[in-house]
Amino acid sequence: MIDTPHIHLGSLLRSSSDAHAEGELDHLTYEQGGSEQTLRFARPAPYEVDVNPLGGGEMYLQGRFEPTLILECARCLRDVEVPLDLKLGTLLRYEPSVDAPYLEEAETGEEVLVFGDPDLDLSAYLAETALLAAPLSVLHAPDCKGLCQVCGHDLNEGPCEHSAQVPVEEIDDELGTPEGSAHARQNPFTALRDLKLPED
Ligand SMILES: [Zn+2]
Ligand SMILES: [Zn+2]
């Protein structure tokens, strides 16, 4: 298991040979807005990258990254596994003065990964690519009941003492009409069942 994905581009920069790297990651640590972030994976995430020189300090990276992200259910916050199969493709530009690699948009609108260390750390690039491809919000199940807004109880595990306080209309909208609820009893045809008809 490799902690940080690197590709060594020293000999590519010296002699224009191709470079290749592959491995598996169980998480990615990267920096965003000055703070360290961690992207967790449910299982080892394989990646494979090839870099080909284009001349003039530019090169092209292509490859594949297949992480299974662990995201939080938007309603109950339990872990949800989100498998991604990502095709990688980006221009690279070598600028010796650059500290940490960063993505910028070229005049052509294409993304360029600018880096200064020939031992290129792909952490931020892979994390950003995965996050861009990930859904903005996920549910662990389409009918997740969420958490009680009063006590935080996971309503998927059953009601809590506050459940009765939730207005019926709200339950209706989110969950539909549960079997045997007041709505079923209000059904006029259900009422007919209790009617005793005189026998002929
Ligand atoms: Zn949920
Ligand atoms: Zn509650």
UniProtKB/TrEMBL annotation:
It comes from the Bacteria. InterPro entries: YceD (IPR003772). Residues 173-200 are annotated as: Disordered. It holds the Pfam family YceD. This is DUF177 domain-containing protein. It comes from Deinococcus aluminii.
